[in-house]
Amino acid sequence: MSLAPRAAIAVGLGGLAGAGGRWGLVEVLPASDTWPWGVLAVNLAGCLLLGYVAAAAWSARAQLPVSLGLSTGFCGSLTTFSALTVDVAEMARNGDWGFAASYLAVSVAGGVALALVGAALRTAWRRAAP
């Protein structure tokens, strides 16, 4: 089996797991009157994991089926930019501009920060490995 079919299977399986994980976390951490905690949690967790996986892929200099399954598949379906934007738009529509701006800022800045943390964790783990 060539890389393309294995990669497609890995992305599909990762996507299935990520979508299930997102649904479960959003159900466990429903939105409050101010913020959609479940969406925030899945987006930030996905950024952390994707930072780690991306750093692993960079060090390997390869797009292996496992890294594609974890990054494109799992993280891609776990995280949800569309729900983030709809939530921000709804907050703004309701006149909650402060909540909309702070939710967007926490989501973006927190996501970038956690992606960097994930990459740093992968780098530190790789250096510590024998």
General description of the model:
This protein has 130 residues and is an all-alpha fold. It is built from 5 helices and no strands. It starts with a helix and ends with a helix. The mean pLDDT is 91.
- So what's the overall shape? globular
- The percentage helix is over 70%
Runs in which pLDDT lies below 50 for 5 or more consecutive residues are: none
Report on the biggest sheet: none
The CA-CA distance between the termini, in Å, is 32 Å
Instruction: Look at the structure and give the mean pLDDT.
Output: 91
Which structural class is indicated by helix and strand composition?
mainly alpha
Percent range for β-strand residues: under 5%
Strand segment count:
0
Oligomer: single chain
What would you report as the Rg, rounded to the nearest angstrom? 16 Å
Listing every helix as H and every strand as E from the N terminus to the C terminus, the arrangement reads: HHHHH
Number of helical regions? 5
